[in-house]
Amino acid sequence: MTEDTDTRPPPVQATADVDPSAEIGPGTTVWHLAQVRENARLGRDCIVGRGAYVGPGVIIGDKVKLQNYALVYEPARLEDGVFIGPAAVLTNDMFPRSVGVSGNLKRPADWQAQGVRVREGASIGARAVILAGCEVGRWAMIGAGAVVTRDVRDFALVVGSPARRIGWVGRAGVRLVEAGDGEWRCPQTGEQYAESGQGLRAL
Q1: Which phi and psi angles does 180 have, rounded to 5°?
Q2: For residue 7, is pLDDT > 70?
Q3: For domain 17-95+111-169, which CATH number applies: 2.160.10.10, 2.50.20.10, 1.10.10.60, 2.40.50.180?
Q4: For labelling, which of 105, 115, 195, 197 has a CA lying 20 to 30 Å from the CA of 28?
């Protein structure tokens, strides 16, 4: 008889609330008190942290990390390799009201949700807020506590409220150094980047 030495956590913790219609990819873990709503789709090898929320119909790619208490409201789209920091919020309503002009409680049919799109490899810092309809570019990095009110370019490093670009980062997440003639270099990996209309592109 051999002893079972598999100490991996179960894919969905008993205290998590995952709707039966949600799709959870292989290797994905949903931790305690997290909620994954109806028709949400999560890819392979994701981590949904304690108390995180994934709204109805949200689509999440592979190897995405939602840290504790991150809130991802529908109809957000997160591409592969995205990182959402603790207590970050991806909103969906540009004109939030509890009641309409008639005084009645607003229902989903009374407003149009606008999802946030986070492109491949991008990172959202702890307690950052991304306003409805914004797109965060590939491998961009949003600083902790930032409030993003407009689209963020690929590889951009943005901070503050409202968020503004203060530099560029590479795929390693390290701030790039200027190499001249519109080119930038990662001091950690040596990767080279060039400025383009969408932000930077890897050379």
Answers
A1: 90, 155
A2: no
A3: 2.160.10.10
A4: 115
More reliable by pLDDT, 10 or 55: 55
Residue 1: pLDDT band with limits 50, 70, 90? very low
The H or E element that residue 140 is part of is none
If one counts every other C-beta atom within 10 angstroms of the C-beta of residue 85, the result is 22
Looking at the DSSP bridge assignments, the partners of residue 120 are none
Model-level pTM? 0.92
Q: Are strands 77-78 and 59-60 parallel, antiparallel or unpaired?
A: parallel
Tens of pLDDT, residue by residue over 106-153, are: 888 888 899 999 999 999 999 999 999 999 999 999 999 999 999 999
Task: Return d(Cα 100, Cα 49) in angstroms, integer.
Answer: 34
Domain boundaries along the sequence of the chain: 17-95+111-169
Give dist(CA 188, CA 197) in Å, integer.
25
Q: How many CA atoms lie within 13 A of 44 on its CB side?
A: 1
